[in-house]
Design brief:
three-stranded antiparallel β-sheet, elongated, 5 helices, mainly alpha
Length: 278
């Protein structure tokens, strides 16, 4: 038995080219499967192909087209109004905000002093009269200045005067705080109104610009890739064919080698037997 001839090597280049062509056809099939024509209450969507390039065309229904035209016209008008407002604010935006005209807060010492003076004016007059009267009464009763009874009486009068002074100080502080609170509230109110005058046009323009954004209510799925088709295993099949052919060749070559070894063994045995007979 003669050894078999080696099998030809597989044409891997051709197999790769066939694999690429099969992959391309699979991609084309996937593109067509994933881009169907659509009909719904908003309109239609159709897919056309020019080579491997898809074109999606959306068409409104008559009712939706009318609504879209009306919405677009309204949004254009809003955009024009926003543009007019933006032109009017060119001298406002970017300039500093001047709060110098708002009511100011300051020192309230004068308020505090006026309250203290008002309260202590009568108190001082009353305590002066009381001091003179008590002195006369004490002297008439035989209690002279320098005595303990006289000093105790004067101390009581002065203590009452100090208490009146403390009450006047507290009232003056409260009046100053109240005056500051009133002025601060007036200033905050004025600043709030000034900022509102500045920000209201800006807010209006922002709202107009937001409302002028044209949106398409007719939303359709675009170029989808949901369905996946398996690629044709051309190159793998070529590799498997080459491996099978190589295995078959190796098996046949091994069988031929075994047979030849057996024949050689038989021939050697016959020669040895003839030599012994001779």
């Amino acid at each position: 038995m003669c050894a078999p001839s080696p099998p030809p090597a597989p044409d891997y280049g051709a197999a790769a080219r066939e694999q690429g062509a099969a992959n391309l056809e699979t991609a084309r099939a996937q593109g067509r499967i994933n881009n169907p024509n659509i009909n719904n209450p908003y309109g239609t969507q159709t897919t056309t192909w020019e080579g491997d390039t898809p074109t999606l065309t959306q068409t409104f229904s008559p009712e939706q087209q009318a609504l879209y035209n009306q919405s677009t016209a309204t949004q254009q008008q809003l955009g024009q109004v926003a543009g007019q407002g933006a032109q009017a604010l060119q001298g406002v935006v970017g300039t500093g905000v001047d709060f110098s005209g708002a009511p100011q807060t300051g020192s309230y010492d004068a308020t505090r002093k006026s309250v203290i003076d008002a309260m202590m004016g009568r108190a001082n007059e009353d305590y002066t009269k009381r001091t003179d009267m008590d002195r006369s009464n004490l002297i008439a009763a035989g209690i002279r200045p320098g005595s303990k009874a006289y000093a105790d009486n004067q101390q009581m009068i002065e203590r009452a005067r100090n208490d009146a002074r403390q009450q006047a100080e507290i009232a003056g502080g409260n009046a100053a705080s109240q005056a500051y609170g009133v002025d601060e509230a007036r200033r905050k109110q004025a600043i709030t109104e000034q900022l509102a005058q500045r920000q209201t046009p800006l807010n209006e323009i922002t709202a107009l610009v937001s409302g002028s954004q044209v949106s398409n209510p007719f939303t359709m799925p675009g170029y989808a890739q949901n369905t996946q088709g398996g690629q044709t295993p051309v190159f793998g099949a070529a590799q498997a064919q080459g491996d099978w052919t190589s295995d078959l060749y190796n098996a046949q070559a091994g069988a031929a080698g075994n047979q030849q070894s057996g024949l050689f063994g038989l021939g050697g045995s016959g020669i040895m037997a003839g030599a012994m007979l001779m």
